[in-house]
Amino acid sequence: QVQLVESGGGLVQVGESLRLSCTASGSTFSSYTMGWFRQPPGKEREFVATINSNNYRTHAKFVKGRFTISRDNAKNTVYLQMNSLKPEDTAVYYCNAVIAKSAREYEYWGEGTQVTVSS
Q1: How far is residue 56 CA from its own chain's centroid?
Q2: By the 8 A CB rule, do 68 and 81 touch?
């Protein structure tokens, strides 16, 4: 069982920045594929960004150029740097881990952290 703990959410103004962090348990963090998803109010959860064990990154089109995912394997932590925030970025942001083990994949989720962008 892997536990994910997010932090860094909060209330910001339009155009400001936030950095979300997600710390994972486990001794093989460097092998995890880590990601961020978000769920805006009244909408479905959606993909934001992912980073694999080779540091290959993918970002959703709507955040390209504004959000950047990164990881620090020494700290078992993945980050989401969010710049130029917009009201439509308001959502609960969830950390996600996908772990390959014994020819299967296991998926874990954090409890989420609220990001509110006020205009």
Answers
A1: 15
A2: yes
Place of tokens 């959410």: 9
> Distance between CA 58 and CA 47 in Å, rounded?
10
| Cβ neighbours around 98 below 10 Å, total | 14
pLDDT value of position 27: 85
Nearest to 48 by CA among 8, 17, 92: 92
Strands (E), 1-119: 4-7, 10-13, 18-24, 33-39, 46-51, 57-59, 67-72, 77-82, 91-101, 104-109, 113-118
Amino acid at 87: P
Give the tens place of pLDDT for each residue, 83-119. 999 999 999 999 999 998 888 999 999 999 999 999 9
